[in-house]
């Protein structure tokens, strides 16, 4: 894969002491990052008391045999807007392939497909997203706050949401217990 200065297809892990309580221990799947900005979906926290079946009912979709999986807090921007991060074995009308690692869909067709048992093999549902304007993420990356790591889909689908932050660091060879909540001033 060609190396670029952009983080599409990677995970952002919040460093201790990031300074924004909305992002404490956040794990963000970066779905788009270029000169114009970035968009990511939070995968490290679920919304208490909200499952897939309730989301499907809001769209008048029969849940069928779909599991009542927890819904993730995707980020503070547009918290009522839904997204599905999923494996690349399914594609719908607005699906965006994210570097061949996972896909992002934001229309109801993916929810219908999941409920009908015809959707992607692996998926997670999130409300909201994290967004950065032009060069905003690049500036944040130059300060203490975010750590980027390879976007291995196993972290998204095989690790419980509450464990993704720690596992993300471990997978990158970093012991999260050794992280400081500030940077040096040399």
UniProtKB/TrEMBL annotation:
This is UPF0301 protein FHT02_000146. It comes from Sphingomonas xinjiangensis. Belongs to the UPF0301 (AlgH) family. Coiled coil: none annotated. It comes from the Bacteria. GO terms for cellular component: cytosol. InterPro entries: AlgH-like.
């Amino acid at each position: 894969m060609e190396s670029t200065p952009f983080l599409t297809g990677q995970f952002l892990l919040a460093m201790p002491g990031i300074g924004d309580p909305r992002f404490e221990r956040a794990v963000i799947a970066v779905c788009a990052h270029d000169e114009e900005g970035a968009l990511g979906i939070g995968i490290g926290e679920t919304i208490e008391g909200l499952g897939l079946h309730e989301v499907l009912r809001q769209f008048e979709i029969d849940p069928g045999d779909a599991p009542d999986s927890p819904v993730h807090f995707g980020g503070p921007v547009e918290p009522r807007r839904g997204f599905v991060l999923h494996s690349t074995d399914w594609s719908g009308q607005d699906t965006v392939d994210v570097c061949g690692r996972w896909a992002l869909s934001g229309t109801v067709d993916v929810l219908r497909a999941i409920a009908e048992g015809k959707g992607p093999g692996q998926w997670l549902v999130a409300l909201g997203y994290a967004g950065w304007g032009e060069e905003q993420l690049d500036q944040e990356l130059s300060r203490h706050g975010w750590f980027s790591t390879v976007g291995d889909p196993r972290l998204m689908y095989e690790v419980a949401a509450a464990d993704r932050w720690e596992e993300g660091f471990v997978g990158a060879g970093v012991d999260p217990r050794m992280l400081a909540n500030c940077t040096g001033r040399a």
